[in-house]
Amino acid sequence: MTTDIVVDKKSVTKERLKEPSKYKVIVCNDDVTSVEFVIAMLITVFKHDEKSAMNLTISIHNKGSAVVGIYSHEVAEQKSVDGTTMARLNNYPLIIKVEPE
Q1: DSSP 8-state code for residue 96
Q2: In the chain, how many domains are there?
Q3: How far apart (Å, rounded) are the C-alpha atoms in residues 7 and 27?
Q4: Domain CATH for 42
Q5: Which residues does 91 contact at the CB level (< 8 Å), separation at least 6?
Q6: 11 in a domain, yes or no?
Q7: What are the backbone dihedrals phi and psi of residue 14, each rounded to the nearest 5 degrees, phi first?
Q8: Rounded CA separation 90/88 (Å)
């Protein structure tokens, strides 16, 4: 006994993969957190080099906030938590926000 299998070759499935959304991590200026701490936090948590961290810190101070990195949602949230935790452990009220790009 034989079995015939008929396959409809006209139906083609096309899947379009969408790039994951990116999120900005924004550090806000305050009157308490020291410049030295912000630079150290940007180097430690966000892996900026010293020059980049210094330029970002100046921008945060002058403009009130600055985007310090753009990441997937999970990474952005974790870096925000890590930076905030570091600030709280050093008694600083630094605010770090995550927003869609």
Answers
A1: E
A2: 1
A3: 57
A4: 3.30.1390.10
A5: none
A6: no
A7: -115, 120
A8: 5
